Amino acid sequence: MKKSFILLSTVFLFTACQSSTSAADSPFPTPSAVTAIKLKDVSDHWAMSAIEGAVKKGYVDGYEDSTFKPENNVSRAEFVKMVITAIKEPVKSVSSGADWSSPYIAAAINKGILRESDFLIDNVNDPISRLEMSRISLRATDVTLQNKAIQIDNDSVMYNAAKMGLIQGMAKGALEPKSSTTRAQSVTIIERILKVNQGGTLEIDNYAVGNAELELKHTNIFTVMPHIFGGEQIEKWNPENLTLETGDGLYKGTMDQIVAIDLEDPNDPNLALLGDISKLKWFNGRSFENSPYVESRYMNSYVIYFKGHVDFNNDTNIYKSSSTLPIFSLDGFKNGAPTDSINGILSSPRPLFFKTSTDVPALIIPKDSITDSYAGFSISAPAIPPAQNYNKKIFYSLIPEKIIKQHY
Fold this sequence. Notes:
It comes from Paenibacillus plantarum. Residues 34-97 form the SLH domain. Pfam families: SLH. This is S-layer homology domain-containing protein. The chain is an alpha+beta fold. It has 2 domains: 3-210, no CATH class; 219-407, no CATH class. It contains 12 helices and 10 strands. The strands form 2 sheets. It has a 6-stranded antiparallel sheet with strand order 2-3-5-8-7-4, with no helix packed on it. Strands 1-10-9-6 form a 4-stranded antiparallel sheet. α3 packs parallel to α7 (183-197). It is elongated. It starts with a helix and ends with a helix.
């Protein structure tokens, strides 16, 4: 924040009495008997319980016309005030001529749930974003993060807030970190903060966690397929490993994301990556024309979809110019009987396609397929034989013991 923010927070530390914010200065509803009156605009609202609980606890009020206006936006200052009031953090009095929110901002900084770098003091009355709300909420529930020496990047904020249940996703788990926040959403988040601080656990939106994991880790396999990829990591997952540069310096390709999709879930956030599923086939190893359609009887499966790009290819005589991403492979899954694929039995991972073998960069994995003791991924350059392909194992983990016991 600007230097003025730091100076203001220093002044507040020297004031001694409890704050007294006037109705004229604060954009909050004036505390009144409204708290005892049934709010007339929340009876059928999704956040009714949280709103009524928040009003009862006294960290937010209704308006004098007995409304709450749940869809009104909340400013950064308002959200900070509600959090500080809800967690009962001591607040100093407002100094003469200062903004009504100054004592709450100072208390939040002193507590460690707000940083001078979070936003400019001049913008404190702008609507708070979901990202900013998530960051404050995380710090309000984690003493470690209240240490001013600890910083957390934006993607980690959204991932950890979703994983804890502090935030739920919008439609299909969409994170929308830049979107503004309503009064209803704000009190819902604060009720979750209070529950966590009291030792409770929260409902988790796995769609939101998966979406956040994709942004942070460039994959969602740990959320969608934890029973396969959730064991001890031998080759640890690291997004930096998703780039392959050949030893001859002629080719470089990057796997941008490795996306897990649950075909049985019609609301899977990443299902649209596959296009028209009614036309999608899995390759039986013999004939594109006679390969089975996925939708007919193979939806009890996962799909691993590979998104990537070629950074450079300086010799198309050595590396295929038609490849739009590195060559990928899935390791650790056992093959079924030699005749399974020809007979339409999907017993091991197989390539997906619409018309040709390379038009869908994905593999279908039957949910009852048998794994070895580990599973993982490798990438390589699209070398034209006999050129070297520089195969690179980018990740593998041990299969959780309980899964192995189910197969043996």
